[in-house]
Amino acid sequence: MPPPKDVVKIAIQMVGAIPQLIELQQTKPLASVLKDVCDAWSLPNAERYALQYADGRQTYITESNRRDIKNGSILRLTTSPDQEAERLYVGIQSKNVDVKTDSLKKLASLSQDVTFAQEFISRNGLKQIYSIVEEGNDTGEMLAHTLKAFTELMEHDFVSWENLSTVFIKKIVSYVNMNAVDASIQQLSLCILENMVPTSRLLFELVKKEVTLDRLLTHLQATNAELQLKAMALLIALLLSATDAERRDMMDYLREKNLRQFIHKNIIHSSEPLGDEMAHYLYVLQSVSLNLCEHRMKTSMDPYSQEQRDLLQSLRETAFESESEVPAGSFSTERRRSLCAKEFRKLGFVNNSNPAEDLRRAPPGLLALDNMVYFSRNTPNAYSRFVLENSSREDKHECPFARSSIQLTLILCEILHIGEPCSETAQAFYPMFFGQDHFFEELFCICIQLVNKTWKEMRATQEDFEKVMQVVREQITRTLSLKPTSLELFKTRVNTLNYSEILKLRQTERLHQEETLAVPVLELREKLKPELLELIRQQRLLHLCEGTLFRKISSRRRQDKLWYCRLSPNHKVLHYGDVEEGVQSPPIESLPEKIPVVDMKMLLVGKECPHTKEKSSGKQNKDVLELAFSIVHDMEEYCLNFIAPTRYEFCLWTDGLNVLLGKEMTSERTQTDLDVLLSMELKLRLLDLENISIPDNPPPVPKPPSNLNFCYDFSHAEQ
Fold first, then answer.
1. Which of 203, 210, 316, 514 has a CB 3.0–4.6 Å from the CB of 173, allowing a cystine?
2. How remote is the C-alpha of 80 from its chain's centroid?
């Protein structure tokens, strides 16, 4: 008979004593449980003791978290958090250097626990840490433990970052700016500043003033990968907290210092593999940089702006330079206006008498004009060739440069997600972005020439404009999905993917669809589905058994807390626990926490998850909601909360958990995998029917013969 839900069987250890095996009554007050344990070992003053997990993070057991204790858990009897906090509070003020260092080391370890942190902070312990940093000149082990303890204590959000003194902040900044200081201290200092920057405008301005971009670039060029990562984290925090004008100035300065080229050469193409966190920071840097185009994209052209009109006129003058050189006095005003209108029509403007009207649509707004001007000034030969080549074609077959440029700019903005907020978890960046300054403009220059090339291949007329732009969008997206490492490689590949190749790809996809829509094939699909769905279920469970590394994302965007979760090989228990950076696949024995599959009650996703409801800031990024899921266990009272690293992992984990719960797999990945497997299986089964049309209806069954005398009688043959 299974034990009641409010009783768990556990072991309790104590140094120098034989462990106790007890049945913990969850309804019994924790103070009474502690007294019974202490009495069994003849220990007085039970109130001075507490229970703590023996493995993993060694969290203290309290009334609020005691329900997390599972059958088979190993606890340890230790000094209570208030007693330990008092002891360490005294220890860090000791005149004895060894005692002080040991106390700070212990403090750094225990501060991860929320109960201990609350007790230590309530004793004004942070004030002592401030004084150690502000008054001390030590830059060795003691300081490293102090900064680590401070970081962990602040992580619990009991104290506002705005309470920090200017002296303390400048001391932290000095460690970042020093040359002769241990790398671990610089890493911790960078981490503290990174957490500080988003909390208030005042702190942002102070850090931005004290830690120069040059200094951050120096750390980015360090050989220490962890120091490089923390420097990048602070740079990203500064960029995200800056105003639009400040961000633009910072990005301009980083461009002058060739940051992109350094990243392209020394980080993306480094001999070391790129970590998830660095990939995320590179994605954010790319997104922030591209979003600098947002203002121009959303600004319509002002026909009364002389500057904008001059840019527009420069397009006409560059294209028709020889014609524009005729003296103004040679023509009347009316004749000159007529000539300008004719030239703007040749440039491909719809409203040739007032071309500014074409640029009133936002997006793409003035960004389209910027792109056209960049193309005309930086590749004048290609620009003149495009315009003049189309001027000499028949009216219906000319490719309109201006109209194409406006539509292409809009397409590129949509593909590159310009104007959209940064994701908190995404890691997808384009390596070629970091290999080129003026990336967006250079990409436009390649793609506008692609438009002209595709237009000619399609022998298009003005009525085919939308069709041509659809093909161009497809050419760009298909090529970008290959993640080319440079714009040159992108140019080569996108030009190889010509209109005939696009037609072949479309035809292949269409034929495949037609094949799979025949009635007999549909019947065969339905017959194969159960077997293939079982195969997908097994794959999902196998993925859960291999496990996944998850990150804890707090309100301050920190992503350096890692934990691992995996399913036992017998599919009966989920094991999980905190791990250190760099651990790829920890063994099940090293994961202290566990949830029996039989105790799992429900799977929650998205907005239903408790950890997404907790974030009430209103800035909740939609991608976090799309990656969040929770397992409800133990009578719907407790949840294990996840934020998947990618949408792919989200699909595999939610499918696997649904399989364990005996429910249908509901993710979009299931349908994709099923379609792929069905397609492969159908192709194999229909291999012998190639080029044979499959009828919609089965052939009629012939009538039975009038007699069966043609059957051979084997009995006569034997005689």
1. 210
2. 40
Yes or no: say if 346 and 399 are a contact pair by the CB < 8 Å rule: no
> Which residue segment(s) compose the domain that 428 sits in?
298-321+334-510
632 close to 604: Cβ distance less than 8 angstroms: yes
682 located within any domain: no
Residues 452 and 552 in one domain: no
For the chain, give the longest Cα–Cα distance: 123
Flag whether 628 is in a domain. yes
Q: Are residues 365 and 315 in the same domain?
A: yes
43 & 99 share domain? no
Whether residue 365 is found in the same domain as residue 481: yes
State the Cα–Cα distance between residues 86 and 69, nearest whole angstrom.
Answer: 27
Which residues, at least 6 apart from 570, have a Cβ–Cβ distance to it below 8 Å?
A: none
Distance CA 244, CA 242 (A): 7
Choose the final residue of a domain: 671, 699, 714: 671
DSSP 60: B
Kindly state whether residues 471 and 487 are assigned to the same domain.
Answer: yes
| 273-330 tens-digit pLDDT | 888 889 999 999 999 999 999 999 999 999 889 999 999 999 988 888 655 455 545 5
The answer to whether residues 255 and 387 belong to one domain is: no
Strand partners, 595: 574
Dihedral sign for Cα atoms in the order 536, 538, 542, 547: positive
| 635: pLDDT strictly greater than 60 | no
| Among candidate residues 40, 63, 79, the one where a domain is terminated | 79
Tokens of 317: 């003058």
CA atoms within 13 A on the CB side of 244: 8
Count of domains for the chain: 4
**Model pLDDT for residues 106-133, shown as the tens digit of each residue:** 999 999 999 999 999 999 999 999 999 9
Does residue 364 form part of some domain? yes
Closest to 686 (Cα-Cα) out of 507, 511, 530: 511
Structure tokens at 312: 């527009």
Residues 24/10, Cβ–Cβ less than 8 Å: yes
Cα separation, 369 vs 610, whole angstroms: 47
- Give percent of the chain with pLDDT exceeding 90: 53
Provide the CA 705 distance to its chain's centre, in angstroms. 70
Same domain, 302 and 227: no
Q: Which pairing describes strands 49-53 and 74-79: parallel, antiparallel, or unpaired?
A: antiparallel
Looking at the chain, the whole-number percentage of residues with pLDDT higher than 70 is 91
Can you give the three-state secondary structure of 533-578, one letter per residue?
HHHHHHHHHHHHHHCEEEEECCCCCCCCEEEEEEECCCCCEEEEEE
On whether both 29 and 138 belong to a single domain, the answer is no
Going by pLDDT thresholds of 50, 70 and 90, the confidence category of residue 393 is confident
pLDDT tens per residue, range 507-524: 877 766 655 666 777 888
Q: How far apart are CA 172 and CA 169, in angstroms?
A: 5
Alpha carbons 291 and 87: distance in angstroms, whole number: 52
Task: Report the C-alpha dihedral over residues 200, 204, 206, 211, rounded to 10 degrees.
Answer: 150
Q: What is the pLDDT of residues 407-460, one digit of tens each?
A: 999 999 999 999 998 888 788 899 999 988 899 999 999 999 999 999 999 999
Amino acid at 177: N
Kindly tell me if the per-residue pLDDT of 616 is higher than 50.
no
The pTM is what? 0.77
